[in-house]
Structures
1.
Amino acid sequence: MLRLRPLRPDDEAAVRAAQAVMAAEGFTFGLRLENAATWDEYLRNVADHRAGLNLPAQHVPSTFLVADVDGQVVGRVSIRHELNDFLLAEGGHVGYCVLPTFRRRGYATEILRQALVIARSLGIDRVLVTCDDDNPGSISVIETCGGKLDSTQQAKPGSPAHLRYWID
């Protein structure tokens, strides 16, 4: 049973390992982890982001949770409480990932389903989720969770287009 939960002090090794694995795919697991001098500082930064405190320029309040299955971190989600121009164009309200060794087990769909419940509890009625057009797994997850394609946007020359989905 997958459960989304906040980071704990004993998650450091798992999150740092996940960071290294996902970096090989060009993806960041621990958002802003590289900016923290210590794990305790990172946990404070995550808590500050959730509360909307001490946000860097161009950042919005967000909730960062790990996906836990039987005590093992299998993925993560970031739920942005509001959208700025960048998030409206490319990032959306929800960003998630599943570690490669745990893919194709339905975890991404469950992460997004639970994230939608949390987003709604934050007062977000229409949730924007984006993905690259060359990621059929994410496209399937988003559509399974009720995503309706709104638009396709080219991010940068030579990079995949971004698909923008709204979930009501």
2.
Amino acid sequence: MTTTVSDKTTPVQERPLRPRLSGPGGTELGKEASREARRVAAMVLEVLAGARTPTEAAQALELSVPRYYQLETRAVHGLLAACEAAPKGRVPSLDHELAALRRDKERLQRDVLRQQALVRAAQRTVGLPPPPAFKNAGKKTRRRRLARALNLAGRLHSANQDNVTAEAPGPGV
């Protein structure tokens, strides 16, 4: 079935009406900005459109003409920055980078502790004495807390030594 323009019997599909916006930017434009910022922006736009002179805008804003030109330059720089193309993809944020660095630091600290434990175990296996304690000249030495695993291993070794001496027959038996 074909319809022609002159055919009045076919109903024309109507699009749903959108709420009419009050102009460029919509009704919410500038709601987040302060009153003073909106005034300055309106004056700069009026000067750039040719509706006012820079002197008239400066008088309306109660500024000097050089100060008005400073504000206008800042406004144009802001406009240019807003018109730059947004980078494609996910933009790395400082919070995510900081969290990644912290995770990396914790992983590296665990690796260091693991390597130190392996070195100590290898030294004990070979029979090397532990390295000499670091001496602070004139400072009070703090007792370094042993890792729980080393503390438990030491108690097991001493208990094992006690059992070996108790089971061994004494001389003259």
